[in-house]
Amino acid sequence: MSGYEKTVLLTGATGFIGGRLLLRLLDQGIKVRCLVRSAKKFEAMFPGLDGVEVMEGDPARGSGLSEAMQGVEVAYYLIHSMGSARQKGRGFIEQDRKAAENFRIAGEKAGIERVIYLSGLGEHQKELSKHLSSRQEVGKILASGSIRTTELRAGVIIGSGGAGFEIIRYLVERLPLMIAPMWVNTRCQPIAVSNVMDYLLGCLTTPETAGRILEICGPEVLSYRELILCYANIRRLKRAILSVPVLTPKLSAYWVQLITPVPNGVVRPLIEGLKNEVVCRDNSIRELIPVELIPMKEAICTALTEVEKGPGGIPSRQSCFLHSLT
Ligand SMILES: NC(=O)c1ccc[n+]([C@@H]2O[C@H](COP(=O)([O-])OP(=O)(O)OC[C@H]3O[C@@H](n4cnc5c(N)ncnc54)[C@H](OP(=O)(O)O)[C@@H]3O)[C@@H](O)[C@H]2O)c1
Question: pTM for this structure?
Protein backbone atom coordinates (compact mmCIF):
# COMPACT_ATOMS: atom_id res chain seq x y z
CA MET A 1 0.00 0.00 0.00
CA SER A 2 1.30 3.43 -0.91
CA GLY A 3 0.00 5.46 2.06
CA TYR A 4 -1.38 8.08 -0.35
CA GLU A 5 -4.93 8.75 0.78
CA LYS A 6 -6.35 11.41 -1.54
CA THR A 7 -8.02 10.84 -4.91
CA VAL A 8 -5.68 11.20 -7.89
CA LEU A 9 -6.83 12.35 -11.30
CA LEU A 10 -5.69 10.14 -14.17
CA THR A 11 -5.83 11.17 -17.82
CA GLY A 12 -5.08 8.73 -20.66
CA ALA A 13 -6.58 5.69 -18.88
CA THR A 14 -7.62 4.24 -22.25
CA GLY A 15 -4.01 4.39 -23.47
CA PHE A 16 -0.98 2.11 -23.17
CA ILE A 17 0.60 3.89 -20.20
CA GLY A 18 -2.52 5.26 -18.45
CA GLY A 19 -4.35 1.91 -18.55
CA ARG A 20 -1.49 0.13 -16.85
CA LEU A 21 -1.02 2.91 -14.34
CA LEU A 22 -4.71 2.76 -13.44
CA LEU A 23 -4.38 -0.90 -12.43
CA ARG A 24 -1.16 -0.22 -10.47
CA LEU A 25 -2.74 2.69 -8.58
CA LEU A 26 -5.81 0.63 -7.67
CA ASP A 27 -3.56 -2.23 -6.63
CA GLN A 28 -1.85 0.17 -4.20
CA GLY A 29 -5.24 1.08 -2.70
CA ILE A 30 -5.19 4.58 -4.22
CA LYS A 31 -8.49 6.22 -5.11
CA VAL A 32 -8.57 7.11 -8.80
CA ARG A 33 -10.75 9.44 -10.87
CA CYS A 34 -10.30 8.97 -14.62
CA LEU A 35 -10.94 11.74 -17.09
CA VAL A 36 -11.65 10.08 -20.44
CA ARG A 37 -13.11 11.19 -23.74
CA SER A 38 -15.42 8.18 -23.90
CA ALA A 39 -16.76 6.43 -20.80
CA LYS A 40 -18.12 3.74 -23.13
CA LYS A 41 -14.62 2.97 -24.42
CA PHE A 42 -13.33 2.89 -20.84
CA GLU A 43 -16.09 0.44 -19.77
CA ALA A 44 -15.27 -1.81 -22.72
CA MET A 45 -11.60 -1.86 -21.75
CA PHE A 46 -12.17 -2.33 -18.01
CA PRO A 47 -15.52 -4.09 -17.64
CA GLY A 48 -16.76 -4.14 -14.05
CA LEU A 49 -13.67 -2.45 -12.60
CA ASP A 50 -14.40 -1.39 -9.02
CA GLY A 51 -13.13 1.55 -7.00
CA VAL A 52 -12.71 3.99 -9.85
CA GLU A 53 -14.67 7.13 -10.76
CA VAL A 54 -15.00 7.84 -14.48
CA MET A 55 -15.78 11.30 -15.87
CA GLU A 56 -16.00 12.40 -19.47
CA GLY A 57 -14.10 15.40 -20.73
CA ASP A 58 -11.53 16.54 -23.23
CA PRO A 59 -8.55 18.73 -22.28
CA ALA A 60 -8.11 19.81 -25.93
CA ARG A 61 -11.63 21.30 -25.89
CA GLY A 62 -11.40 22.36 -22.26
CA SER A 63 -14.48 20.31 -21.35
CA GLY A 64 -15.04 18.43 -18.08
CA LEU A 65 -11.82 19.64 -16.46
CA SER A 66 -13.07 21.67 -13.49
CA GLU A 67 -15.53 18.94 -12.45
CA ALA A 68 -12.86 16.23 -12.70
CA MET A 69 -10.35 18.29 -10.72
CA GLN A 70 -12.58 18.98 -7.71
CA GLY A 71 -10.83 17.92 -4.50
CA VAL A 72 -7.75 16.63 -6.34
CA GLU A 73 -4.16 17.53 -5.40
CA VAL A 74 -2.22 15.35 -7.84
CA ALA A 75 -3.02 14.68 -11.51
CA TYR A 76 -1.30 12.37 -14.00
CA TYR A 77 -1.04 13.79 -17.50
CA LEU A 78 -0.69 10.84 -19.90
CA ILE A 79 -2.27 11.96 -23.12
CA HIS A 80 -1.12 12.93 -26.61
CA SER A 81 -2.99 13.53 -29.85
CA MET A 82 -0.76 11.75 -32.36
CA GLY A 83 -2.92 9.54 -34.53
CA SER A 84 -6.10 10.79 -32.90
CA ALA A 85 -9.09 10.47 -35.19
CA ARG A 86 -10.49 13.56 -33.53
CA GLN A 87 -7.81 15.96 -34.72
CA LYS A 88 -10.19 17.22 -37.40
CA GLY A 89 -7.48 18.67 -39.58
CA ARG A 90 -5.55 20.41 -36.80
CA GLY A 91 -2.06 19.04 -36.30
CA PHE A 92 -1.16 17.12 -33.16
CA ILE A 93 1.29 19.85 -32.07
CA GLU A 94 -1.39 22.51 -31.90
CA GLN A 95 -3.90 20.15 -30.31
CA ASP A 96 -1.43 19.01 -27.63
CA ARG A 97 -0.43 22.62 -26.91
CA LYS A 98 -4.09 23.61 -26.44
CA ALA A 99 -4.81 20.57 -24.24
CA ALA A 100 -1.86 21.32 -21.95
CA GLU A 101 -2.81 25.02 -21.69
CA ASN A 102 -6.43 24.18 -20.84
CA PHE A 103 -5.29 21.60 -18.30
CA ARG A 104 -2.89 23.99 -16.55
CA ILE A 105 -5.40 26.84 -16.43
CA ALA A 106 -8.18 24.60 -15.07
CA GLY A 107 -5.71 22.98 -12.63
CA GLU A 108 -4.65 26.34 -11.22
CA LYS A 109 -8.29 27.36 -10.74
CA ALA A 110 -9.14 24.07 -9.05
CA GLY A 111 -6.10 24.22 -6.76
CA ILE A 112 -4.22 21.21 -8.17
CA GLU A 113 -0.79 21.12 -6.49
CA ARG A 114 1.10 18.64 -8.64
CA VAL A 115 1.04 17.24 -12.17
CA ILE A 116 3.04 14.15 -13.11
CA TYR A 117 3.62 13.99 -16.85
CA LEU A 118 5.34 11.32 -18.99
CA SER A 119 7.22 12.94 -21.85
CA GLY A 120 9.84 11.97 -24.43
CA LEU A 121 13.62 11.88 -24.13
CA GLY A 122 15.75 13.65 -26.68
CA GLU A 123 18.89 15.70 -26.90
CA HIS A 124 18.26 19.34 -26.21
CA GLN A 125 21.06 20.83 -28.27
CA LYS A 126 20.36 19.04 -31.53
CA GLU A 127 17.33 19.58 -33.70
CA LEU A 128 14.53 17.56 -32.19
CA SER A 129 11.79 15.91 -34.24
CA LYS A 130 8.35 17.56 -34.23
CA HIS A 131 7.03 14.80 -31.98
CA LEU A 132 9.77 15.04 -29.36
CA SER A 133 9.81 18.81 -29.28
CA SER A 134 6.01 18.82 -28.94
CA ARG A 135 6.26 16.41 -25.97
CA GLN A 136 8.79 18.69 -24.29
CA GLU A 137 6.75 21.80 -25.12
CA VAL A 138 3.78 20.23 -23.31
CA GLY A 139 6.01 19.79 -20.25
CA LYS A 140 6.97 23.47 -20.37
CA ILE A 141 3.33 24.56 -20.67
CA LEU A 142 2.21 22.40 -17.74
CA ALA A 143 5.07 23.73 -15.60
CA SER A 144 4.67 27.37 -16.63
CA GLY A 145 2.17 28.30 -13.90
CA SER A 146 1.90 27.62 -10.19
CA ILE A 147 1.45 23.82 -10.40
CA ARG A 148 4.57 21.89 -9.42
CA THR A 149 5.11 19.60 -12.42
CA THR A 150 7.21 16.46 -12.63
CA GLU A 151 8.17 15.69 -16.22
CA LEU A 152 9.54 12.18 -16.65
CA ARG A 153 11.28 11.71 -19.99
CA ALA A 154 11.46 8.23 -21.53
CA GLY A 155 12.67 6.83 -24.86
CA VAL A 156 11.44 3.48 -26.20
CA ILE A 157 9.14 1.74 -23.72
CA ILE A 158 9.11 -2.05 -23.91
CA GLY A 159 5.61 -3.38 -23.30
CA SER A 160 2.87 -5.01 -25.33
CA GLY A 161 0.60 -2.39 -26.89
CA GLY A 162 3.20 0.39 -26.83
CA ALA A 163 3.59 1.98 -30.26
CA GLY A 164 7.41 1.71 -30.37
CA PHE A 165 7.47 -1.91 -29.22
CA GLU A 166 4.67 -2.94 -31.59
CA ILE A 167 6.48 -1.41 -34.57
CA ILE A 168 9.58 -3.45 -33.74
CA ARG A 169 7.52 -6.59 -33.14
CA TYR A 170 5.66 -6.45 -36.46
CA LEU A 171 8.78 -5.56 -38.46
CA VAL A 172 10.77 -8.45 -37.04
CA GLU A 173 7.94 -10.98 -37.20
CA ARG A 174 7.13 -10.16 -40.82
CA LEU A 175 10.36 -9.20 -42.55
CA PRO A 176 13.37 -11.54 -42.92
CA LEU A 177 15.36 -8.69 -44.49
CA MET A 178 14.90 -5.06 -43.50
CA ILE A 179 16.09 -2.24 -45.71
CA ALA A 180 16.40 0.57 -43.21
CA PRO A 181 17.57 4.17 -43.23
CA MET A 182 20.67 5.26 -41.32
CA TRP A 183 18.57 5.82 -38.16
CA VAL A 184 18.99 2.15 -37.29
CA ASN A 185 22.39 3.18 -35.97
CA THR A 186 20.98 5.84 -33.58
CA ARG A 187 21.44 4.93 -29.93
CA CYS A 188 18.57 4.41 -27.52
CA GLN A 189 18.11 3.24 -23.94
CA PRO A 190 14.85 1.27 -23.74
CA ILE A 191 12.95 0.89 -20.47
CA ALA A 192 10.53 -1.85 -19.38
CA VAL A 193 6.97 -0.59 -19.01
CA SER A 194 6.78 -1.93 -15.45
CA ASN A 195 9.79 0.24 -14.51
CA VAL A 196 7.94 3.22 -16.02
CA MET A 197 5.04 2.33 -13.70
CA ASP A 198 7.45 2.16 -10.73
CA TYR A 199 8.65 5.68 -11.48
CA LEU A 200 5.19 7.17 -12.18
CA LEU A 201 3.91 5.68 -8.94
CA GLY A 202 7.06 6.62 -7.03
CA CYS A 203 6.67 10.30 -7.99
CA LEU A 204 3.37 10.41 -6.11
CA THR A 205 5.00 9.68 -2.77
CA THR A 206 8.36 11.36 -3.45
CA PRO A 207 7.81 15.13 -3.08
CA GLU A 208 11.44 15.81 -4.10
CA THR A 209 10.43 14.93 -7.68
CA ALA A 210 8.03 17.92 -7.82
CA GLY A 211 9.11 20.77 -10.07
CA ARG A 212 11.72 18.67 -11.88
CA ILE A 213 12.47 17.16 -15.27
CA LEU A 214 13.80 13.63 -14.73
CA GLU A 215 15.07 11.17 -17.31
CA ILE A 216 14.10 7.51 -17.03
CA CYS A 217 15.88 4.66 -18.82
CA GLY A 218 16.59 0.96 -18.59
CA PRO A 219 20.05 -0.46 -17.86
CA GLU A 220 21.37 -0.86 -21.44
CA VAL A 221 22.36 1.60 -24.18
CA LEU A 222 22.23 0.16 -27.71
CA SER A 223 21.41 1.08 -31.30
CA TYR A 224 17.98 0.48 -32.83
CA ARG A 225 19.69 -2.12 -35.02
CA GLU A 226 20.87 -3.98 -31.91
CA LEU A 227 17.43 -3.67 -30.32
CA ILE A 228 15.71 -5.13 -33.41
CA LEU A 229 18.24 -7.97 -33.64
CA CYS A 230 17.92 -8.64 -29.91
CA TYR A 231 14.15 -9.12 -30.36
CA ALA A 232 14.84 -11.44 -33.33
CA ASN A 233 17.36 -13.40 -31.29
CA ILE A 234 14.90 -13.91 -28.42
CA ARG A 235 12.34 -15.18 -30.94
CA ARG A 236 15.01 -17.31 -32.64
CA LEU A 237 14.26 -15.63 -35.96
CA LYS A 238 17.04 -15.17 -38.50
CA ARG A 239 16.92 -11.53 -39.52
CA ALA A 240 19.18 -9.15 -41.44
CA ILE A 241 19.20 -5.36 -41.62
CA LEU A 242 20.64 -3.43 -44.52
CA SER A 243 20.99 0.28 -43.86
CA VAL A 244 20.95 2.59 -46.86
CA PRO A 245 21.51 6.37 -46.81
CA VAL A 246 18.92 7.10 -49.52
CA LEU A 247 15.85 6.00 -47.58
CA THR A 248 14.19 9.15 -46.17
CA PRO A 249 12.13 9.09 -42.94
CA LYS A 250 9.01 9.84 -45.04
CA LEU A 251 9.63 6.85 -47.27
CA SER A 252 10.41 4.52 -44.38
CA ALA A 253 7.25 5.68 -42.57
CA TYR A 254 5.16 4.59 -45.61
CA TRP A 255 6.88 1.26 -45.57
CA VAL A 256 6.40 0.75 -41.79
CA GLN A 257 2.70 1.62 -42.23
CA LEU A 258 2.36 -1.19 -44.77
CA ILE A 259 3.90 -3.77 -42.45
CA THR A 260 2.48 -2.82 -39.05
CA PRO A 261 -1.05 -2.08 -37.76
CA VAL A 262 0.17 1.00 -35.81
CA PRO A 263 -1.92 4.02 -36.97
CA ASN A 264 -0.39 6.25 -39.66
CA GLY A 265 -0.63 9.37 -37.53
CA VAL A 266 1.59 7.71 -34.92
CA VAL A 267 4.12 6.03 -37.24
CA ARG A 268 5.16 9.19 -39.13
CA PRO A 269 6.17 11.34 -36.11
CA LEU A 270 7.78 8.36 -34.38
CA ILE A 271 9.92 7.46 -37.40
CA GLU A 272 10.94 11.09 -37.80
CA GLY A 273 12.08 11.02 -34.16
CA LEU A 274 14.40 8.06 -34.67
CA LYS A 275 17.16 10.41 -35.84
CA ASN A 276 17.37 11.74 -32.26
CA GLU A 277 19.42 9.81 -29.74
CA VAL A 278 17.27 8.88 -26.74
CA VAL A 279 19.74 8.08 -24.00
CA CYS A 280 19.69 9.23 -20.35
CA ARG A 281 22.29 11.91 -19.55
CA ASP A 282 21.09 12.47 -16.00
CA ASN A 283 20.34 9.56 -13.67
CA SER A 284 19.16 11.55 -10.61
CA ILE A 285 15.89 9.60 -10.64
CA ARG A 286 17.78 6.49 -9.49
CA GLU A 287 18.53 8.11 -6.14
CA LEU A 288 15.14 9.73 -5.74
CA ILE A 289 13.18 6.57 -6.57
CA PRO A 290 15.41 3.48 -6.34
CA VAL A 291 13.96 0.64 -8.42
CA GLU A 292 15.43 -2.57 -9.75
CA LEU A 293 15.89 -1.93 -13.46
CA ILE A 294 14.70 -4.76 -15.67
CA PRO A 295 17.21 -5.98 -18.28
CA MET A 296 15.99 -5.44 -21.82
CA LYS A 297 15.82 -9.11 -22.80
CA GLU A 298 13.64 -9.83 -19.80
CA ALA A 299 11.43 -6.84 -20.67
CA ILE A 300 10.99 -8.15 -24.23
CA CYS A 301 10.12 -11.65 -22.97
CA THR A 302 7.55 -10.25 -20.56
CA ALA A 303 6.03 -8.18 -23.36
CA LEU A 304 5.86 -11.27 -25.62
CA THR A 305 4.17 -13.27 -22.89
CA GLU A 306 1.57 -10.49 -22.62
CA VAL A 307 1.11 -10.48 -26.38
CA GLU A 308 0.26 -14.15 -26.21
CA LYS A 309 -2.51 -13.43 -23.72
CA GLY A 310 -4.00 -10.62 -25.85
CA PRO A 311 -5.95 -10.85 -29.11
CA GLY A 312 -4.13 -11.37 -32.38
CA GLY A 313 -0.75 -12.16 -30.83
CA ILE A 314 1.89 -13.56 -33.12
CA PRO A 315 4.41 -15.29 -30.85
CA SER A 316 3.64 -17.98 -28.34
CA ARG A 317 5.24 -18.25 -24.91
CA GLN A 318 7.16 -21.33 -26.05
CA SER A 319 8.78 -19.27 -28.76
CA CYS A 320 10.15 -16.78 -26.26
CA PHE A 321 13.34 -18.59 -25.35
CA LEU A 322 14.03 -17.52 -21.81
CA HIS A 323 17.36 -19.36 -21.83
CA SER A 324 18.59 -16.79 -24.35
CA LEU A 325 18.62 -14.34 -21.43
CA THR A 326 21.93 -15.69 -20.25
N1 LIG B 1 4.42 4.52 -25.68
C2 LIG B 1 5.70 4.84 -25.56
O3 LIG B 1 6.60 4.07 -25.96
C4 LIG B 1 6.08 6.16 -24.92
C5 LIG B 1 7.44 6.49 -24.84
C6 LIG B 1 7.82 7.70 -24.22
C7 LIG B 1 6.84 8.55 -23.72
N8 LIG B 1 5.52 8.22 -23.83
C9 LIG B 1 4.52 9.18 -23.33
O10 LIG B 1 3.54 8.55 -22.53
C11 LIG B 1 2.33 9.28 -22.60
C12 LIG B 1 1.19 8.31 -22.87
O13 LIG B 1 1.43 7.68 -24.12
P14 LIG B 1 0.79 6.29 -24.54
O15 LIG B 1 1.84 5.49 -25.20
O16 LIG B 1 0.02 5.71 -23.39
O17 LIG B 1 -0.25 6.78 -25.64
P18 LIG B 1 -1.54 6.03 -26.24
O19 LIG B 1 -1.55 4.60 -25.92
O20 LIG B 1 -1.62 6.45 -27.67
O21 LIG B 1 -2.74 6.71 -25.43
C22 LIG B 1 -3.05 8.06 -25.60
C23 LIG B 1 -4.13 8.42 -24.61
O24 LIG B 1 -4.38 9.83 -24.72
C25 LIG B 1 -5.79 10.01 -24.73
N26 LIG B 1 -6.12 11.28 -25.37
C27 LIG B 1 -5.66 11.77 -26.52
N28 LIG B 1 -6.17 13.00 -26.75
C29 LIG B 1 -6.96 13.29 -25.69
C30 LIG B 1 -7.74 14.38 -25.33
N31 LIG B 1 -7.83 15.45 -26.11
N32 LIG B 1 -8.44 14.33 -24.17
C33 LIG B 1 -8.37 13.24 -23.36
N34 LIG B 1 -7.62 12.16 -23.65
C35 LIG B 1 -6.93 12.18 -24.81
C36 LIG B 1 -6.31 8.82 -25.52
O37 LIG B 1 -7.69 8.69 -25.27
P38 LIG B 1 -8.73 8.06 -26.34
O39 LIG B 1 -8.79 6.61 -25.97
O40 LIG B 1 -9.98 8.79 -26.11
O41 LIG B 1 -8.15 8.28 -27.71
C42 LIG B 1 -5.46 7.71 -24.87
O43 LIG B 1 -6.01 7.33 -23.63
C44 LIG B 1 2.51 10.33 -23.70
O45 LIG B 1 2.78 11.57 -23.11
C46 LIG B 1 3.73 9.83 -24.46
O47 LIG B 1 4.47 10.86 -25.07
C48 LIG B 1 5.10 7.04 -24.41
Answer: 0.94
